[in-house]
Amino acid sequence: MSIIIALIVFSVIVIFHELGHFWLAKANGIRVNEFSLGLGPTIFGVQKGETKYSVKLLPFGGACMMEGEDEESDDERAFGAKSVWARMSVVAAGPLFNFIMAFVFAFVLMSCIGCDKPTITDVLPGFAAEEAGMQAGDTIVKINNMSIHFYREVSAYSMFHPGETVDITFLREGERYTTRLAPKLDEESGRYLYGFSYRQVREKGNLLTNLKNSFYEVRYWVYTTLQSLRMLVTGRLSFNELSGPVGIVKNMGDTYTEAVESEGYYTAFLNVLNWVILLSANLGVMNLLPLPALDGGRLVFLLAEAVRGKKIDPNREGFVHLVGIILLFLLMFAVMFNDIRRLFVH
């Protein structure tokens, strides 16, 4: 049951991404030839008007295939026949819809349980926070140039910038203070610590506060995605630590099962909400990367066209995207193989 729920969640996120492309294509008068969930051979399809709606064999990914998107077409409703700004709106709509989806589910989560306010509950002896005079009850509002709204952001910053000296701004009884902390290595945990601890207490807000915190929740997952990519590029995160669709579905299913067994269905529901926010924001970010075959790569070509005032040679652009698709599939299969290997090797 947990795997089925995970697959449904993954599918809904992908469908919503493709719906962004679909709805903007329709709004701009572009012919959509096929709208599909999944990849590979078609196992079910129905023709409705000009568009075929289908389900593919592999339950990961999806597609909104438009007339003249990757090839020349004389159809006046072809993708390439529309203005560069219309095409940019269609391409950008997929990631944008993912961010909208993440925001909506973040609002539901905030309305249910609130947020983890960044107020420290204790100061550890012998570490920088104690030496700087920080106290339990201080609320952290800024680390270097990054504003802080949740305690998770403090933990994430520490994880992505281990050992770095930071300027921390905090509030105490309405007054704002700034101090510099040099983290120390904790031999027991092997982590660099600033020297304060936190006992998670979530604070609910009103409608306006929840809307604002929903934005910050999406921002948090965008930040963690970008920082994880930075660690991967710089070699601080290994390829073996990556998870693809198989790994994500398994982890989501395991999280759901554990929550049901230990705390009940309501907690499991909240965990699923969290996964939806994470994955939807992650998909939005990944698709905006300026790489061939991704939405970000297509936007690069369209921006170049807008600046130059004329189209890029469609054959050259198509070749670049074809190479990108091949490399993307190779990476996807490599990650999937890694996921499957981890299922059997612990």
In short:
The protein is α+β, with helices and mostly antiparallel strands.
Structure description:
With 346 residues, this protein is an alpha+beta fold. The chain folds into two domains: 2-111 and 278-344, no CATH class; 115-203, Pdz3 Domain. Helices cover 53% and strands 20% of the residues. The protein contains nine helices and twelve strands. The protein has a four-stranded antiparallel β-sheet with strand order 6-5-7-8, covered by helices on one side. Helix 6 runs antiparallel to helix 7. The longest helix is centred in the last third of the chain and has 31 residues, at 314-344. It is globular. The model has no long low-confidence stretch (mean pLDDT 86).
Question: What's the number of structural domains?
Answer: 2
Number of helices: 9
Q: How far apart are the termini? A: 23 Å
The main sheet comes to: 4 strands, antiparallel
Broad structural category: alpha+beta
- Overall mean pLDDT: 86
Ranges with pLDDT <50 over ≥5 residues?
Answer: none
**Tally of strands:** 12
Largest sheet strand order? 6-5-7-8
Q: Shape from CA axes?
A: globular
What proportion of the residues is helical, as a percent range? 40-55%
What's the SSE pattern? Answer: HEEHEEHEEHEEEEEEHHHHH
Strand percentage: 15-25%
